[in-house]
Amino acid sequence: MRVHVVSDVHGRADALARAGDGADALVCLGDLILFVDYADHSRGIFADLFGPERAAEFIGLRTAGRFDEARAMSARLWSTLEGDPRDHIEAAVRRQYAEIFRAMPEPAYLTYGNVDIPRLWPEFARPGHLVLDGTTAEIGGLTFGFVGGGLRTPYRTPYEIDDEEYARKVEAVGEVDVLCCHIPPAIPELLYDVVARRLERGSEATLEAIRRTQPRYALFGHVHQPLVSRTRVGRTECVNVGHFRGRGTPFALEW
């Protein structure tokens, strides 16, 4: 059995269309939308609406940890648009989702990332796309558990939830062979982004579940350029499957 795993697609529909080649199924760990591109300031919803120079300024403020200033700048720009800013964002997100889900191979098992908008997915998911969050699926005789979304941060991305709600989803998954989450377990070397030079948030609940239940694999994404991409916790191989927007190739899991 061979499963390809991707995370942090961020608009890479071209590569996503080929991500299932040679595999029995695709697993996607979320972050389908590209709002801002830290590498190419001309890409993403923010740049499409306000231009690359404004996007570069916005990214610079966020990178420097000046979140209040970034939000104030963003609010000023949104106020220049006609109508409700949320309508502009949702229209752009819908366009990206339409393209991404058209490219998504079938069968695919998906969960949400922190920048995703779960309520919109049913409009675009096709019959071969199974969306899971806080539940399990059997793939090739192994039980895969899925926990989507992210934890609260100063970035205030769309699908951030309280620690308690996240922990309940981890608990609901229970003992599995492969634990699939968008964000990593709370192990510092897995959380440090060497390009952004900051620690991202990880889940203590996920780490505790790994220690207690010892799945074969714990798979995740979220940290685009991690200090360490894989480590072991007991018998569990913890693997960051890679920044799919940057790499364009999936992680392959075989058994």
From TrEMBL:
List the Pfam families: Metallophos (PF00149)
**SUPFAM superfamilies, A to Z:** Metallo-dependent phosphatases
Q: What is the protein name given in its UniProt record? A: Metallophosphoesterase
Q: Where is the Calcineurin-like phosphoesterase domain?
A: 1-226
